[in-house]
Amino acid sequence: MTPIQQIEIEDEGAGVRADAFIAARLAVSRSRAQKMLEGGTLNGARVKPSHTLRSGDVLLLPELETTLEETQAQISSEEMPMPELIKNLVFVYEDEHLMIINKPRGLLVHLGAGERVATLVDFLRQQNKPLSSVGPPERAGIVHRLDKETSGLMIVCKTDAAHWKLADDFSERRLTKNYVALVCGVPPLRGRIEAPIERHATHRKKFAVMQHGKDAVTEYTVAQHWRKFALLNIHLLTGRTHQIRVHLNYLNHPVVGDPLYGGEKRALDSAGSPEVRAALENLHGQALHAAKLQFTHPITEEPLQFEAPLPADMQNVIEALNVAE
Predict the structure, then answer these.
(1) What span, in angstroms and rounded, lies between the C-alpha atoms of 181 and 223?
(2) What is the pLDDT of residues 8-51, one digit of tens each?
(3) What is the C-alpha separation between 125 and 232, in angstroms, rounded?
(4) Which of 18, 109, 169, 308 could staple 145 via S-S, CB 3.0–4.6 A?
């Protein structure tokens, strides 16, 4: 393909990887930027995506045809009808670099294998929110995620610069994430769970504690307890898929309302009173909420801290337990 774009690197691009710079500059995914670099040149020579740019460098890049996957992702986002629960999404904070949202339970953050339902990314695109282009199009802006049935605070990135820095902060555990969970039974008042996690060998939608899994560490304290239930404050030191749900199930204290790990049936069996049972039946999913988020702004370096109240249906269960006991 004939190079049709010429980009001269100025001071803001100096010291940045070539693929990261192109992704941010042209608002494309990193993989697409890498494909463009494969057919382009830097100062007349071939260039690797990992090459660090310098002020004064000149890039010549080809135009790539939009892939079918990218086209489908964009079209589906524009046409996808949003579920009623999207009305419960709250923008807690927003600036030119990032957004903090309070995600309602039941909203999928981004597409997974074989899925085609409305997602948070779809909604943000429909709202014309700028999203970082790191990663595939269906995960635009997403630097970390919450399970579909987990509510609470999430960061969404608008710029690649913010995305790269926050991704590094997550990797180095510089952010503090605190959750609140209502669980079946009463565990020891304080605990630290260090148990590796990987995908279940036979049930592919589940994860499990496995000897050769990825390291996972969860700390918790009991904030309140009743005869057969407890409310936990949870601090995540790692961010594995389903980590809290898997670790608490491993302790034999599954999250209330969680059908995948046994918390839904056990909670109903333990209800005790009609009022508690009614509140549990009106719980729309698992009683797990990302309640607090503390981090340093990736661009301004301002310390930020946010809190989100418990969903009403989760609070109703707690109030029913308080009355019953």
Answers:
(1) 10
(2) 887 767 788 888 777 766 656 677 778 888 888 889 889 888 88
(3) 35
(4) 109
Cα separation of 282 and 200, whole Å?
A: 29
State yes or no: pLDDT of 317 exceeds 50.
yes
Write phi, then psi, for 163 (nearest 5 degrees).
-60, -50
Coil/strand/helix, residue 149: coil
> Residue 275: which H helix or E strand, with range?
helix 274-281
Element (H, E) at 120: helix 120-126
Q: At what angle do helices 274-281 and 312-324 cross, to 10 degrees?
A: 170
Residue 57 a catalytic site member: no
Do 76 and 119 form a contact (C-beta atoms < 8 A)? no
- Residue 138 Cα distances to 124, 150, 226, 316, angstroms: 11, 20, 42, 35
Q: Write down the catalytic residue from 19, 57, 122, 147.
A: 147
- Residue 292's SS3 state is strand
Longest dimension (CA), the chain: 76
